[in-house]
Amino acid sequence: MRPPSLLSLTLDSALLRIAHLHDLSRLPDHLLIDLFRRTIAAGKLTEKVLKLFLATDCEEIALLVQLLNIKQPLVPVLPTTLQPNLTTFFEAWRPFFSRFHIIVVKDPDMAEELQIPTGFDLKVYTKSDMGVLGATSIDFSGHSCRYFGYLVSRKKYVISIDDNCLPAKDNGGLTVDAVAQHMSNLKTPATPFFFNTLYDPFRKGADFVRGYPFSLREGVECMLSCGLWLHNADYDPMTHVVKRNQRNTTYVDAVMTVPLGAMMPVSGINVAFNREVLGPVMFPALRLRKEGKHRWDTLEDVWNGLCAKVVCDRLRYGVKTGLPYVMRSDAEAGKALESLKEWEGVKVMDVVLPLFESLKLSSTSVTVEDCVKELTSIVKEKLGPQNAIFAKAADAMEEWTKLWKSHGAQSA
């Protein structure tokens, strides 16, 4: 058996240190390709290492990345607000999440230690990590802890799924890959300017119907993907009390673009977005006075969705809803009837909806940051005098803008 050559030993040595190298541009292309193949075979092709190879501008490397369908990892943000034991959650999602880096944000009000199975590439953020932000008026407790994950993520796309949700099964009995479906929604165009009656024309087996203007068929970039859920519905306190035993069992195999100007109650239960673009508007701002730990007595994600939709409409971006589904458990128990006595969400929505439906941001707002700044001023002027919670929401939006500039604007 021939001993390895000096060149082979050199490449083996480089492979051992690949995660710590900073520049490969001086390597000849044939050695670069050899090292790239060895890196893949050794399972050492991380996002950082991939960028190191792509920075060499080697055409063969770029071609290999395309042919092998190598994709940059995502960051599912997994807030832990209902239970400290996440074993069932992670084991159920293992086939889909084990490929990606995961951010787990622990509710700052939770005293128990988290229980998470091994075998995942993850980072857990706690109350002490939130302290690096300094004094801030933004409350990251309860379901709002997910937004801290949005802030500290450094990936282009974020997928957020509540910790009481498990993978769903489609009509054929196959387990739904929520990550893949969210990415399909975000990476195919949206069509907000003219409704297609066959729903998303970019899905396999669909297309634009007769009469759809050809000038609009290219669509626009989709920035927000709103998934749905089976079993336990996402109701407000009134409906929760009346239909406490009702369960959603209908799996509708469809995705659609939300039309321009249409508002929708976005839910943080199962959502994904382009963080690099929408990050400045993905904030926890509106908090009801008696808001607790249950979905049915919160409005922060609904408010966030209204703001994001207005911004997307102004900048000609798309929002999709429908697939993917998740299976939502009954873990969220609570005294909805008592909450109903003090819940002011109905009055709040009756006040805000007319404003958002008629809202037209000015042509001078050409970035998401511009839109958030203008939207903040409108909320403060139009809604602030009517209710103190709107004034606080405007303050939180201003505070988020500062936090985004100081802690969130950096990308991977």
UniProtKB/TrEMBL annotation:
Q: What's a Gene Ontology MF term here?
A: UDP-arabinopyranose mutase activity
Compartment annotation: Golgi apparatus
Q: What is this protein called?
A: UDP-arabinopyranose mutase
Name the family. Answer: Belongs to the RGP family.
Q: Name one GO biological process term.
A: cell wall organization
Per the record, what is one GO cellular component?
Golgi apparatus
What domain of life?
A: Eukaryota
* Keyword line: Cell wall biogenesis/degradation, Golgi apparatus
Q: What is its main location?
A: Golgi
